[in-house]
């Protein structure tokens, strides 16, 4: 074991800075620095220190800068730092192995203005962990994926001016801080729910097109007579599911207007509210019902083309049973996280971002990611394979005289499923997080655009059916 005492150091009363890096120091003896009464800066970085005992820094009453980065400290109780060097203004504890910070660990450091505890596997911190740090101005807690931050932790840090978190959503717990980093997750910023102006325009344009187009198709198909009532029934239900996506976009657009310029004050309240949970439920319901409907319709088209003379085709009653089953399945998939909300696993499933959509592409391993993977890799990917297989088989078996019919219908189904293909591919590569800005485009534009385009496809490409 490599030990370190004041006898190793030259006796000096004039040095005001000392740097002892990469010396493989594992233990510091008590009173090691008693002779360094004038020392103002001490750097013990990149050593192998595991514990700071009370008395280790005795005599360092004038030290203002203390660097302990890159060691192997595991628990911080403050006893070896707080009482021995109460005049510290800059303390760096980053890149250690600190998993626990004991309550009141920094109580005696009333002069501390800069604290760095980044790059530590923190698992336990008391709500009063920063109590007593009345003068702290900068706090570095980046690359820490501690999930139990709370507003109470920062209540006493009234002079805190800069804080550096790992994730944008943690800024919601320190609302009084003037400069919080990162200041955006690509979707939202400290000021706005939708950070970019082009997203604000897109959300309203697509919402209006989606609601207007699908409503018109539903009304039109209800008033007009069709030879194939079963197919018309499925089209109207597909319109209804797309219309739900339009409602989702209107809610997001409205909340963006309400919180314009003051979003960070209400971000935590919004994401934890029932309104956000319900909004996410609508988006999930719409997407899953649409995918399941398209899957069934693709299989039915395959059977019609490959076996044109089969006798057993679904009538209106049978179609109604299938539709009820599809809506109930979509409802169950979307509603399950609401049932589990408050039980731990699903607590932030819909509220992990401001748009309340749980695709989990920008932060792949958030709580509930397994369920998200089940939905988008299990259910949706399986549906996509069935749709592609159905149309591959259809083109192999189709007669030449009916090729134009199948081609037109494939255009409609292909367009409707096209938005899911890149998302499923990205979900498969979830080990690499998608940027927040790309995630915003997927949720606001790529997925909903199918709901806006579908009414046109219904009118132009499905008259034959």
Automatic annotation (TrEMBL):
Could you tell me which species this protein originates from? Branchiostoma floridae (Florida lancelet)
One GO cellular component term = plasma membrane
Q: Which UniProt keywords apply?
A: Cell membrane, G-protein coupled receptor, Leucine-rich repeat, Membrane, Receptor, Repeat, Signal, Transducer, Transmembrane, Transmembrane helix
Question: Ranges for the G-protein coupled receptors family 1 profile domain?
Answer: 213-458
Q: Which residues form the signal peptide?
A: 1-22
Q: Which residues cross the membrane?
A: 197-217, 238-258, 278-299, 320-339, 371-396, 438-458
| Record membrane topology | Multi-pass membrane protein
Q: Which named protein is this?
A: G-protein coupled receptors family 1 profile domain-containing protein
Classify the source by domain of life. Answer: Eukaryota
């Amino acid at each position: 074991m490599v030990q370190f005492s004041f006898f190793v150091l030259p006796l000096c009363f004039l040095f005001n800075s000392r740097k002892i890096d990469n010396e493989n120091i594992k233990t510091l003896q008590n009173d090691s620095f008693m002779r360094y009464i004038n020392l103002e800066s001490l750097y013990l970085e990149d050593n192998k220190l595991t514990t700071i005992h009370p008395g280790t820094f005795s005599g360092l009453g004038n030290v203002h800068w203390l660097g302990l980065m890159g060691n192997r400290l595991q628990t911080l109780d403050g006893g070896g730092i707080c009482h021995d060097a109460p005049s510290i203004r800059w303390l760096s504890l980053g890149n250690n192995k600190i998993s626990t910070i004991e309550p009141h660990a920094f109580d005696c450091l009333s002069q501390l203005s800069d604290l760095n505890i980044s790059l530590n596997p923190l698992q336990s911190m008391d709500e009063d962990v920063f109590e007593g740090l009345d003068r702290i101005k900068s706090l570095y807690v980046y690359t820490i994926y501690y999930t139990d931050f709370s507003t109470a932790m920062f209540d006493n840090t009234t002079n805190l001016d800069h804080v550096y978190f790992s994730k944008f959503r943690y800024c919601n717990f320190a609302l009084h801080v003037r400069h919080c980093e990162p200041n955006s997750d690509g979707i939202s910023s400290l000021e706005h729910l939708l950070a970019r102006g082009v997203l604000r325009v897109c959300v309203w344009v697509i919402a209006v097109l989606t609601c207007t187009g699908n409503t018109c198709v539903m009304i039109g198909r209800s008033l007009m007579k069709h030879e194939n009532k079963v197919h018309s029934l499925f089209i109207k239900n597909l319109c209804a599911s797309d219309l739900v996506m339009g409602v989702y976009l209107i809610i997001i657009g409205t909340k963006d207007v309400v919180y314009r310029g003051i979003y960070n004050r209400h971000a935590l309240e919004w994401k934890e509210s029932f309104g956000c949970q319900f909004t996410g439920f609508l988006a999930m319901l719409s997407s899953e019902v649409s995918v399941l409907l398209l899957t069934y319709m693709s299989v039915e088209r395959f059977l019609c083309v490959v076996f044109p003379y089969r006798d057993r085709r679904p009538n209106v009653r049978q179609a109604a049973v299938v539709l009820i089953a599809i809506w109930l399945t979509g409802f169950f998939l979307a509603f399950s996280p609401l049932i589990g909300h408050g039980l731990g696993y699903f607590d932030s499933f819909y509220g992990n971002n401001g748009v309340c959509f749980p695709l989990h592409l920008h932060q792949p391993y958030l709580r509930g990611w397994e369920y998200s993977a089940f939905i988008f890799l299990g259910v949706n990917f399986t549906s996509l394979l069935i749709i592609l297989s159905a149309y591959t088989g259809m083109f192999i078996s189709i007669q030449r005289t009916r090729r134009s019919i199948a081609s037109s219908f494939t255009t409609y189904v292909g367009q409707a499923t096209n938005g899911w293909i890149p998302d499923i591919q990205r979900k498969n590569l979830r080990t690499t997080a998608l940027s927040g800005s790309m995630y915003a485009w997927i949720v606001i534009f790529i997925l909903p655009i199918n709901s806006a385009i579908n009414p046109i496809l219904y009118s132009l490409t499905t008259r034959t059916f």
